[in-house]
Specification:
Helices cover 52% and strands 16% of the residues. The chain is built from 27 helices and 24 strands. Strand 16 and strand 17 form a beta hairpin. Helix 18 packs parallel to helix 20 and helix 25 crosses helix 26.
Amino acid sequence: MTEETEARAKADALLAEVARERGGQLKVFLGAAPGVGKTYAMLNAARELRRQGIDVVVGLVETHGRRETEALLEGLPALPRRSLQYKDRSIDEFDLDAALMRKPRVLLVDELAHRNAPGSRHERRFQDIEELLDAGIDVYSTLNIQHLESLNDLVSRTTGVPIRETVPDAFLDRARDVVLVDLPPRELIERLKQGKVYMPEQAASALESFFSPSNLTALRELAVQKVADRVDADLRDYLLAHGMVGTVGVRRRVLVAIDGSENTEYLVRIGRRIAERRQAPLSVAYVETGRARSTDAQARLDHAFLLARRMGAQAELLRGTNIADALLDHASRHGVSTIVVGRTRERPLAQLFNRTITQQLLRKGAHFELTIINSPEARARSRQRLAGTLPWHRRDLPEYGFALLTVGVATVLAAIASNWLRIDDLSLVFMTAVVIVAVRSRQMVSMTAACLCFLAYNFFFTEPRFTPMIASRQDLLTVLLFLAAAILCGRLASRLRNQVVLLRAANAHTGALQESGRRLAAAADEMQVHAAGAAALSNALDREVVILTRGAAGSELRIAAQSGRDAALGTIDLAAADWSAEHGQPAGRFTDTLAAAGWWCLPARAAQRTLAVAAIRYPPNAPRPTPDQEQLAQAMLDDIAQALDRTRLVGDVEAARVQGETERLRTALLSSVSHDLRTPLASIIGAAESLSVYGEQLSDHDRKQLLGSVLDEGRRLDRYVQNLLDMTRLGHGSLKLDRDWCALDEIVGAAVSRLRRAFPSVPVQVDLQATPPVNVHPALIEQALFNILENAAKFSPSGRAVRVRAQMRGHTVEIAISDQGPGIPDADRARIFDMFYSVARGDRGAQGTGLGLTICQGMIGAHGGSVAAEPGDGGVGTTIRVILPIAPEGTPPP
């Protein structure tokens, strides 16, 4: 065993152990037959737990009138049963909702294989128990060995009594403990005679049929073997989980190949028992070759896949023209060690050329263990074949009838053409007939048509005519070559037809997935994903589809999207969708959960959670979806779930980005308020205190300086507050433009005058070329230009001028404001217009909130213009270039 295999086996064992620990724990009391004391042993265990102070509640226990069992129920709290009406009579059933609401530590639920009354949430009681386990409730239950799904057919053949109520092996695998309750057959028969199992009138008939010593001995052997296999599995999982893989042999996967024949379900059960003995995972596969299947074969395939899933196996639908190659390829890619197949039908010609499936598997699958099962149906068919009583399948009559008709028409046409064509050329007429049959029917029919054409060609057209004899050697060679060519052409045409059918199915499947992926990829939010998913599912399945989601945790399901106009989901349909969303499993029609619903509900799951539920409505008389349709629907739902998960992740990332940006702005604003707003306030307060305390002692010059400082700092504070207000109005879109025709030199002059009052020591050079009037909001443009001039003045070295130039360019006016300061790095030029960026670089200095250029960009942008930072003249300093349209489109000139 390689290190990789050991690691994988250990991981699987650990995962199995963790999965078994999740949720509630199941304990099953297993017996060989009714009356061995399973319920009695379960009640004794419950009373012991009760004495230990554990909360034990009786959910449902059937005593069947046995006084000893009824005595054990005394003192144990019990849930009331639920009454259901069915065909004018009342049926008492286990109340699942009451158990979920009460939620005891341990709940007793008898008769695990019981079938619930119509109208219950689940069809079978083990499904009720499964929901209890998922809710975290430990469950004790009882089971007879004949009700186990994989042993159902074996028990029926052994006892002669059909068993209709079964429990999937996969569910029993979930049990933490399986307790064998055993009783020798003689003692059980004695209890039956004493009336301790059934009533006297029932006991008599039971002794004559089911409760015979041989039957009870066989059932007892099966029960003991099942528990022994369970003990081996527990030991193996424990050893693997603790790294002791050298003490056990790790088995690989078992693959069962089915074909839809009568022995299909028998093969699945046999495969389950083989996989269980070897402690290996089980897969059930059907190879789709493109050949048409009968209604009965399709129904058997559907039942076989459903049976496989109930047994915990993985159902696989493969595609390929050669069944053996498809099985071997799948086995190689999925770690299969054993392939289980049924004995193929006896076809002499295929056997002659080693073309049967078993022969191909034996020849090509040297690395696999091949198990060939001869089913009871196959043995009966062999006996009938030997006796000459094998029944003819009526479904074959149309195909063989078409072949016979085609050969007859070809013979007539060849007879007519024989007046003008040579005998060699007549073979082409029969060859065409073989090809026509091959492309419309199965390979066996085409080979039959080839043989009939050979006989007709020989009998009617070769000399001597109307006899099976051939006189000429040349004619003999022609006829034999025709037979070989006809068989070969028929085989190739039939294979080509199957490939075309298979490619069409695969293309339809792939096309549906591609269309779904295309629609989902274009969806930007959850609403669009729901709509795209509903439309894609509806187109692929040709059914009405509704997507349901929950608005919040614990809320009711609501319709998020639908393919039709009105979606009439009834109460039971919504209950099925809600159960599917809660448990992440299919529900409603075609399932065992709320099967009375008219909609088929499938969950869309991603990251171990259900994101949506797709409800698909089928007409009342519609057949069950084929495995291919189920596979397509599940694949599309996986894509929908991934798309929903993607949109949610994108939303989370965007929310995180916005939160980070908000936090950055909040920090910058607090920094600005703490420094740039408090500084002028501190100056004003200091000057005011000086005037208040020392006003009479100060000279007039000192008082004027203090009052000037108060005035300057107050104006500076006013500018900061005005910048904040302007930024707020820009952010909320409440800034209104009262446009008017104004001369550009007046607006620039007003902004320069404000700058000279604020920075009297900074020289300003103005160069305004001839420009026409502009249709703008004068005050806003003046404020924007002043913010740029102020920013330039802060960074201009002492004695260096700030230059203002304006010129006309087409239908726009360009204003360039340059300073001779340190300049701005290339990477930061676009960022200086960000809010509060002065904290890092750009619009910064000893004073300033970093809002000036941001407000400037907003004001210019509101007029339809743009503003950009560029290197200064000669690479010195910075130039802020403003481009303004002379007037909005459609505005008449002044």
